[in-house]
Specification:
Strand order of the largest sheet: 2-1-3-4
Strand content: 15-25%
Number of helices: 5
Structural class: alpha/beta
Radius of gyration: 15 Å
Helix content: 40-55%
Distance between the termini: 15 Å
Largest sheet: 4 strands, parallel
Order of helices and strands: EHEHEHEHEEH
């Protein structure tokens, strides 16, 4: 039996992060968590770029552009989408978060580039803070680690 289990080594991998400006204070915490994780796993500063977009609804299109825009050394190995949608008085937050998730999945499937969904859909600000560096960790960091593993797996599969 052949088993592929990618490691957490980000050296030599290229990452593009797309981040939503809406709820920017929370999203900045996600971005910092993601970048910190990528650096701690060996990603070089020049192998990571960050693009800001207006909101989480715009993340799928930006993720498509990010996946299709190469670095000087080649295409990105993974795209990490970061955003935060907090429930208000209407169900608008669900529409935005559901469509962002579906769009990000579509980009990954259409391009073959791993696209990690680091978009928080929170019922309130306390929940968002708890998941962006609080007691429940940092979803940006978790998405970055998953991006490293998916990028490594992609390279392992391509090498076969």
């Amino acid at each position: 039996m052949t088993v592929l289990r990618p490691d957490d080594d980000a050296r030599g991998l290229r990452f593009r992060l797309v981040a939503a400006s809406w709820n920017e204070r929370i999203v900045t915490r996600l971005v910092n968590g993601a970048l910190g994780t990528l650096r701690s796993q060996g990603a070089a500063e020049g192998d990571c770029t960050l693009w800001w977009v207006p909101g989480s609804f715009e993340l799928p299109l930006a993720a498509r552009w990010a996946a299709q825009t190469p670095f000087a050394a080649g295409p990105p190995d993974a795209v990490i989408a970061l955003g935060c949608v907090i429930r208000g008085e209407t169900e608008h937050f669900r529409i935005v978060s559901d469509n962002a998730a579906q769009g990000l999945l579509r980009v990954a499937l259409d391009t073959g580039t791993p696209v990690l969904n680091g978009v928080l859909a929170a019922h309130d600000t306390a929940q968002a803070e708890s998941r962006s560096g609080g007691e429940h960790g940092n979803a940006g960091s978790q998405a970055a680690l998953a991006a490293v593993r998916m990028a490594r797996l992609s390279r392992d599969v391509e090498a076969r």
